[in-house]
Specification:
single chain; flat
Length: 76
């Protein structure tokens, strides 16, 4: 499924467009989106070597908590 790309100069407009898009999805599509976001969060958490490994119990619907040691942001 292609995700739309929203463009605007104003963050409030983007937030509103994303909110309208999300609620226009069917419940099944929203659930699939939530699963995909959870998988991405787990992948990002696991890539950081400073984080302890996630217990297998969290794979069954548990939450990924904040990183134990967040990765530093790149300087610009």
């Amino acid at each position: 499924m292609m995700r739309p790309v929203f463009k605007s100069r104003y963050k409030a407009d983007l937030d509103e467009q994303q909110r309208r898009y999300y609620w226009s999805l069917t419940p099944h599509e929203r659930l699939a989106l939530a699963v995909r976001l959870n998988q991405q969060a787990r992948m990002i958490y696991a890539v950081n070597p400073a984080n302890p490994p996630l217990p297998t119990a969290t794979i069954d619907g548990g939450r990924v908590l904040k990183s134990a040691a967040p990765l530093p942001r790149r300087g610009r």
